[in-house]
């Protein structure tokens, strides 16, 4: 047959009919199942390719078209090179969009969710992506979230899941708590509302126990993950090395521990600052005069309206309240006035800092604002290395005393943060920063007033959500105050029917209103008890889903360790850079926990990571509000899958944004 005859066979009047071509091959693929991963008896070398699974928020969009095209190109390439390739698909189907849509329509979130999944499945099949359709999963299926509950209980047994009261990030629109990672510039990363602080008792995963491993193991990923992502994770974990220093508080039996990365500057501490929203500040204020208590209450009310981002802004004027209490410097016995100030956060270190205004800019700004002493203890004009210059009595190390005078922070308003030699610091005089830190730590440890320590920016993972459409937390609250796991043979704890429940956000979980569902029994005594009304953060769902793809139909285990040994970790993972901290950090944490449990033989879930760019239009991100949407299904219907795929594949480098114009 001539080439023109071949074209003519595809459509009327000799034209190319993409729909006819697609229908032909989709029918053949459905019959032959050519993209099914080989079983245990398949001796070909294996590759696991995965694109971050979609949320079923409606029809597929151009971002989906790009993301799953790239993973498909890699999967097909490896198949043609003789590999046994696993390329599965699933849906991250719990979460607020489904619940909010259900509230708007007066429907069950299940109806909206699974209707969208069906629509997206049809779109993927039309697009011709080579998924293994035998391994489909939906995180909102009880067959999936049963294993979220199983995982929660394993963490609880290991002391990695716990409950505590603390100030949390609260979204006043979605009426639920947010993890620190879900707050972007002081706003909810989902709805954009300004986040406030609220004190609640919540469930946490103790991710900070893995902080060092999460940080150090990033070295394994250099050259295989984008450097930007690795750096973002390093910055988020934010390890600081220094010392914990114990300060006595006049009129208080228990000492206050302060973490400092610069214990060498202890002689330069002239006051102490505590976070106004900390329990310590409230306690210290309560032991002060009525005037101080009143001023503190007013100040605290103001601070609670601020976001952490605002409080950390270095350009803001410094504010605070003197608590009329004093700490005692353990190295020289000086009395240090204690202030509550908003630039200190309750969950950093121990919620209190020793203020060394000569060598810390925020402390200096505060000291100048309130007329507090400023004492230079590091001569930054002196060399930090080499021979130690001769030291005059209480004099600077440099030859010219005017060198210190010309950069005096009290006059210039600029803190001395550079390297140098210690002055005005007793036996530390003349030492470099590094040597002085080692020496002061040794002195503190000998005196029992301090010790070497580390602090992290990373906070434990807050997983409680006060919403309906998520995994129920599998714990029971007994009449005598105990909190115990639901027996494993009773998992999954299934969500109740949403019909008849008020799902509207109100600050408490809608599940609390499902009285029949809430009522249960104490597994140990048989007495009446209540279920936990909260659901889990949906990032729990996605923290281990790549392993469930290995055993999607197995109802006896979350995943088969033998299958994990065959296929995992993922060889090629692709998704947006917006998940650089949230999803990837949590997946790395859960993988390390599973490794410690002996269930996997690797410590990093994704061997290679690619961040694709966005598909934009006219230089802007597509959005309904801008009126610049290009609809996937319209492009597919007009031009066909092949043309759409080729256009995206050759539009530019994977990592770059592609302007559809």
Please provide a written account of the structure:
With 661 residues, this protein is of the alpha+beta class. Strands 10, 11, 12, 13, 14, 15 and 18 form a seven-stranded mixed sheet that branches. Strands 2-1-26-27 form a four-stranded parallel sheet, covered by helices on one side. Helix 3 (62-80) crosses helix 22 and helix 21 (632-639) crosses helix 22. The longest helix is centred in the N-terminal third of the chain and has 19 residues, at 62-80. It is globular, with a radius of gyration of 30 Å. Residues 1-10 and 387-399 have low confidence and may be disordered.
Name its key features.
single chain, 661 residues, alpha+beta, 7-stranded mixed sheet, 4-stranded parallel sheet, 19% strand, disordered N terminus
The unreliable regions are 1-10, 387-399
The average pLDDT is 91
Give the N-to-C terminal Cα separation: 38 Å
Largest sheet, described in full? 7 strands, mixed
- Strand elements, count: 30
Return Rg in Å.
30 Å
Overall morphology: globular
Q: Structural class from helices and strands?
A: alpha+beta
User: What portion of residues is helical?
Assistant: 25-40%
**Beta content:** 15-25%
Count of DSSP H/I helices? 22
Condensed summary:
The protein has 661 residues and is of the alpha+beta class. The protein is 33% helix and 19% strand. The protein is globular.
Could you outline the blueprint of secondary structure elements for this entry?
Elements (H helix, E strand, L loop, with lengths): L2 H8 L7 H15 L13 E6 L10 H19 L3 E3 L3 E2 L4 H10 L3 H19 L9 E2 L3 H16 L3 E11 L4 E3 L4 E2 L2 E2 L7 E10 L5 H6 L10 H11 L2 E10 L6 E5 L10 E4 L4 H8 L3 H14 L4 H4 L8 E9 L6 E7 L10 E4 L5 H10 L7 E2 L21 H6 L2 H4 L8 E2 L10 H15 L2 E6 L5 E2 L1 E2 L9 E4 L4 E3 L29 H4 E3 L6 E4 L3 E2 L2 H4 L2 H4 L12 H7 L4 E4 L6 H15 L12 E3 L3 E3 L2 E2 L10 H8 L1 H9 L8 E2 L2
Parallel strand pairs: 1-2, 1-26, 3-4, 12-14, 26-27, 28-30
Antiparallel strand pairs: 5-6, 5-9, 7-8, 9-19, 10-11, 10-13, 10-18, 12-15, 13-14, 16-17, 20-25, 21-22, 21-24, 23-24, 28-29
